[in-house]
Amino acid sequence: MNPIEITLQALDAAERAIPSGQPVYMLNLLRYRARARYEDGFDAAPCSGREAFNERYRPAFRRLAAGKPLVRVFSVPVLANLVGSPGERWDEAAINEYGDFATFRSIVETETYRRDVAPHRHAALEDFRLFALAKAV
C-alpha cells in the first residue's frame, strides 16, 4: 500500500472521532520528491515534486472542491525541526479549514479525485502526514 494514501479505514476512524457538523482543520505535512514520479500510463510531463503538487494537484483539488466550504488557512515552508525523529524533514506545512469532515470526505472519496487528482499528490510527495484538528475542544 502507498504510505501516503488516504484509506477508507482512516476516513472511517476519523469520522467516528470528529464531531459531525463542526469545522475541521486539516494539517498537512509535505515532503516533496526531487522529481515527480507518476505511475506508468499516467500522462504527465516531467516536473519536480513541488511543481506537481502546486501546479497540478492543488488546482485540480480546488476545481473538485469548488462551491464547498473550504478555506486555505495557510501554506508555508518548514524552517527547522526543533523536536522530532532524527533526520525527519518536512518541506511545507499547510492548514485547510473545511466546514465539516463530511465535506473533506465527499471530495476525497470521489472517482474524479482518485482518477484525476490523487495521482498528482502521489507523484509529488516523498512523505506526507495528514491530521484532522478541532478549533476548540
Walk me through this protein's architecture.
It comes from Bradyrhizobium diversitatis. This is DUF1330 domain-containing protein. The chain has four helices and four strands, in the order αβαββααβ. The protein has helices spanning 8-17, 49-65, 101-108, 111-124, and strands at 24-32, 70-77, 92-98, 125-133. It has a four-stranded antiparallel β-sheet. By secondary structure, it is of the alpha+beta class. The mean pLDDT is 93. Helix content is 36%, strand content 24%. Helix 2 (49-65) packs antiparallel against helix 4.
Structural class of the helix and strand makeup? alpha+beta
Low-confidence stretches: none
Q: What order do the helices and strands follow?
A: HEHEEHHE
Gyration radius (Cα, Å) is 15 Å
**What is the tally of helical segments?**
4
Instruction: Summarize the amount of helix as a percent range.
Output: 25-40%
Beta fraction: 15-25%
Sheet with the most strands: spatial strand order: 2-3-1-4
Task: State the distance separating the first and last CA atoms.
Answer: 33 Å
Shape: globular
Mean pLDDT: 93
Main sheet overview: 4 strands, antiparallel
Number of strands: 4
